[in-house]
Amino acid sequence: MTPSRRTLISRAITTLALSALSALPALAQGSPKLKVGLMLPYTGTYAALGNAIENGFRLHITEQGGKLAGREIEFVKVDDESDPSKATDNVNKLIKRDNVDVLIGSVHSGVAMAMAKVAKDTGTMLIVPNAGADAVTGPMCASNIFRSSFSNWQPGYAMGEVVAKKGHKKVVTITWKYAAGDESIRGFKESFEKGGGKVVKELSVPFPNVEFQALLTEIAAAKPDAVYTFFAGGGAVKFVKDYAAAGLKKTVPLYGAGFLTDGTLDAQGADAADLLTTLHYADSLGTPRDNAFRLAYAKAYKLQPDVYAVQGYDAAQMLAVGLTAVKGDISKKAEFSAALEKARIDSPRGPFTLSKSHNPVQDIYLRQVGGKKNKLVSIASKALADPGRGCKL
Ligand code: BEZ
To answer: Is residue 118 located within the same domain as residue 79?
Structure first.
């Protein structure tokens, strides 16, 4: 059947209208999806951490009705395997092949440093939802790089003060040999030695090895007053179990950055009982904000949240603050950053602001393991700000 004159005219109008529409900027067409590149570990010793971060991030978006600043969210996910040697390629693919609007990642400090380098070079907005690499908010800091978590220095520094106040004089440290472990120990040592103690031995194993026996024998021989450690995820589970099995738990008090017992207590069981750690979250804060978050998380995932879930949730809250300020147009980077720089994030951990170098200024809690919880003991360090050494912003 030949189309009528009226049909032909109507088709021509539709074609004209469509081509005019495609010439408009994407935002004017009614907010296209915002592409979020989630670069997290989904395999290996930090797999549970990556999953908790994603859960927390998605929870906040769900609570906002699936949109931030009127834009639906599309996720592009990469398993970074906590492998720094693959990180630059992975992040370049997200930016150049997948055209993500914002990067969220990662857990491992080495991976995050590679992400920060590419983010700085390309100007892509980056929110780090865990990795504590001091350099990210130190010498590598940039106006487009933010962290929703902590610097490795922060929990270590807070614990150094606690251990010195307890009167311990001689401490051995043990960790994985990479930025997170080294910097956590450095933070601890700085305040512990200022408080009159001495770190007499620094032990380490390569990441992600969990062969601790020889080093535990060295600790027993050194007979220190206490041990300070940084391990996380699967490695933390193994270390706490091995420490107890070696008989050290009864003779040498073990202290750690809170990752030692966060998200790990089901697997550690009685071997983690009573351990003291420092972190920017605890399972028994009891504030209305935290109670509401814990309830919503448990309902959504049939799991209890941990510090990683909180950091993922807050990364989404930070993205929401920036995006709202620019009405969804993330190309307005200066306005996006300015909004975050003056924001007060209403976190389940307690409200926090960002330091000049974009790291949370936050309370660091002393917690003690009781049952399946890291229970709040006290505030070890109030509103602790990372010194941001080397950051020029
Ligand atoms: C890090 O590599 O920065 C890190 C990993 C797990 C827990 C905490 C810090």
So the answer is: yes
